[in-house]
Amino acid sequence: MAAAAGAAAAAAPVCVLVLGMAGSGKTTFVQRLAAHLHGQRCPPYVINLDPAVHNLPFPANIDIRDTVKYKEVMKQYGLGPNGGIVTSLNLFATRFDQVMKFIEKRQNASKYVIIDTPGQIEVFTWSASGTIITEALASSFPSVVVYVMDTSRSTNPITFMSNMLYACSILYKTKLPFIVVMNKTDIIDHSFAVEWMQDFETFQDALNQETSYVSNLTRSMSLVLDEFYSSLKVVGVSAVLGTGLDEFFIQLSKAVDEYEREYRPEYERLRKTLEEAQEKQKREQLEHLWKDMGSACVQGSTLAGPDDASAMGPSELILTRGTLNEEEEERESDTDDIDHEVTEESHEEPAFRNFMQDMRKKCQRKSNLNE
What we know:
7-stranded parallel sheet; 371 residues; elongated; alpha/beta
């Protein structure tokens, strides 16, 4: 069983959810990833979740723009650009089960599922659609969140800390293996950022040049994020030149192992807990139903003998209908031209009439006793 489960997990595609701020180079990074995998004859399954993108530089197997018209959403709901994007994703998330079916059909043909997302990062920090998408993917496939960061715009320690806070919030919201991709290393090397994450004093020296209140807050937050940095996977990449992709796939492989080791058991436990809760709810509903039906049966049995089929309660008549005259039913079942609706009605009418007669007798007896 364990070997079969391991083989199934190995055959499942890896879902790479690419997130990041607007302008960080997410779409260019997805294009480079797709081109790299096509060059290795390992074509990925690509999904675009950005409803406002004008030109998509890569072929997408599933494109949200084919389903949701971003500008129409803005007009119908009276929204601005950001609200239109968030609402478009909320509408698309209601049909994400269909996306999951498409991925399942292609899981033997594609080793990777790459998902490009809009720059409105709030979709995955507080919006319901982000939670629906990440949980749906992670419950079925190994899933990794990739946070793309603009290295050239993070040379300021305060801006760097802002990026790290976003990354931290996404990590704790999605609860999935996490990789920080420091993009645009063709403009500036990412080694300074790695040093800031590994050496607190170096980051403090960079902050000493800032004298504002924000710098004091950033200094305090850097201590809080020390634990976050210790287990963070960081890769420097140039989406334009394609450098750093080999290191990225090494880190991606480690993230998948982390998912199988730590995250999959948790998702299996949550799924089992949900199934048990749903099963418990069904049992409680059935128990309530049987109690209601049982009370009606008890009232009927106090006034009639156990063999009196005509005096049964309505629930018993429903449950035993078709079994009171089994021999007659077997004889009639040999014919193919029976109008089953008429046969049903012929059984229902006497039963209902007997039930009404029985209830009328009960009422008369109660009135006699009261007199």
